[in-house]
Amino acid sequence: xxxxxxxxxTRVINSRTAGEEKAIKRRRECVQCKQRFTTYERLxxxxxxxxxRDGSREPYLRHKIELGLRKALEKRPxxxxxxxxxxxxxxxxxxxxxxELVPSEQVGxxxxxxxxxxxxxxxxxxASVYRKFGSTxxxxxxxxxxxxxx
Length: 150
Description:
alpha+beta; 6 strands; 45% helix; 22% strand; transcription; DNA-binding; zinc ion binding
């Protein structure tokens, strides 16, 4: 791996598992400029495709789940470690489906199931976009469902 600052070679100082052992966290140091930084190695879900609502297909991209979750969790109290744990749990559930083609609706359901126990406000935000709430009544119904499931 090359240094992100000076592009020289780097060396690994420390390695350990991270994210419920689904990633490897490596502490690195540049041989040239001595800058230290951290990298993460994660399992890449090769060949996994998402079937969109319009019938099109696209490759699975972890960062799309991260973006959706960050938007739902905007201005909510959480740590980066908690966030990465949720993303890894979602990704693990998707991977455990053992399918090469996963409908986007199923991905949304997996995300919602994890948000429901993690942050109810973020759950409502995500659900409102995912389920395309068109009125305040839809929010009210979803809030009532949340209240009943306590």
